[in-house]
Structure formats: structure tokens, C-alpha cells
Design a protein that fits this description.
mainly alpha; globular
Length: 202
């Protein structure tokens, strides 16, 4: 939520809701579109966003009575969460890495690469543990034999994530995408997209 406001600020709730739905965040982040307005108000009460009037000339629906900007405290929290999303391995909570990917451009390129190195080390450690657990399950006389397939499925997920990580690291090292401190057009190649989307949906 903080990241979406950060992109389009000042941004009203309807725009944030539509933007996150277009990213399918309702699927990978378990986002309830109807909770967006409550989340914006909660972040405002917590001092992470500030509420500002919607510009009179902005063509928005009747529900858009306020727009939001990220505060300095919100910026600090956004970057803290972003770094946490990128470096931590949470195999049963894939939405963390998905959110990190969605906003990784807010970091400098070198920091993104460093985060991926840290992520890779943790993935490799987790993968080593899973392989040990597979063998341990196979050798256990009192476990149903099929239980080992849970660990093999987990291993397949980790192996796939590791392969993706190596590939995306190579692409970023080769200069793909845009990151903080670089040409903004490489980060957001279609400026004015938010305005056009709002106009088209009103």
C-alpha cells in the first residue's frame, strides 16, 4: 500500500485500489480490494501517510474525497519492509518476495544485487536442510512413505526460485530495468499512466 501511494502521490483510494488489482495483488498479496480504503486510513492514523484534498481538476469518482501522500516515517517504513521482503526467504509466504519484486526499483541497482546475493545464500541453506530432511524421513520407520513428497515438492519450489534468482541477477547486472538514481523513464516507461487510467475509468 505504501509503495503504490509512493508511485502516484497524491493518490486517492480508488486509483490505489485499481492499480493493485491490475497487479493481481488481490491474489498474491491476499489483498481484499474492499479493504484498501480502511488500510489507507489506518496508515494515515499511524503517521505513515498524510491525507490531502483531491485536486479540484482531477477527474475522479464520487468516492474519492481525499488523496494520500507518503510521510517521511512512511518512506522509512516502506524501505525497511522492501529490504526485508527481498533478503528474507519465506517459502510458505511467497507474497513477501512478490512485494519485494514489485517495488525493488526503489533501491539503487547495487543494493538490489546485494539483496539478491543474501537471498541466494539463505535459499541454498534452506535447500540443504530440505534435502537432509528428505533423507531423514526416508530412514524413519514410523512415517508414512508418501510424506517425503512434501519435502520433494518444497525442494522443487526452492530449486525453481534459485534458478529464477540466478537469471534475474544476471539480467540486472547486465543493465536491464531501472533503479533508484537512474533514468526515471526506465522505471516507469509510460508517464501519465495514472492520469489516463483514472480518466478512462471515470
Amino acid at each position: 500500500m505504501l509503495g503504490a501511494v509512493r508511485i502516484f502521490q497524491p493518490a486517492h483510494g480508488y486509483l490505489i485500489r485499481q492499480e493493485l488489482i491490475s497487479w493481481h495483488a488481490d491474489e498474491w498479496a491476499h489483498l481484499n480490494p474492499g479493504s484498501v480504503y480502511n488500510a489507507l486510513r489506518s496508515l494515515t492514523r499511524g503517521g505513515l501517510l498524510s491525507e490531502v484534498p483531491v485536486p479540484p481538476a482531477e477527474p475522479v469518482g464520487p468516492a474519492a474525497r481525499a488523496a494520500y501522500r507518503i510521510t517521511p516515517a512512511g518512506e522509512e517504513e516502506f524501505l525497511r519492509l522492501l529490504r526485508q521482503c527481498l533478503v528474507s526467504v519465506r517459502p510458505y509466504q511467497p507474497e513477501w518476495l512478490q512485494a519485494g519484486i514489485a517495488f525493488a526499483w526503489a533501491l539503487p541497482r547495487h543494493e538490489m544485487l546485494d539483496a539478491l546475493v543474501t537471498h541466494r545464500h539463505q535459499l541454498e541453506a534452506r535447500l540443504a536442510w530440505v534435502r537432509w530432511a528428505e533423507q531423514d524421513i526416508c530412514n524413519h520407520p514410523l512415517k508414512p512413505a508418501l510424506v517425503v513428497e512434501q519435502f520433494r515438492l518444497h525442494e522443487a519450489h526452492l530449486t525453481g526460485e534459485l534458478a529464477w534468482l540466478e537469471a534475474v541477477s544476471a539480467r540486472i547486472e547486465a543493465g536491464e530495468y531501472g533503479f533508484d538514481g537512474e533514468d526515471p523513464a526506465r522505471i516507469m516507461p509510460t508517464p501519465g499512466r495514472a492520469d489516463r487510467r483514472t480518466t478512462n475509468q471515470t
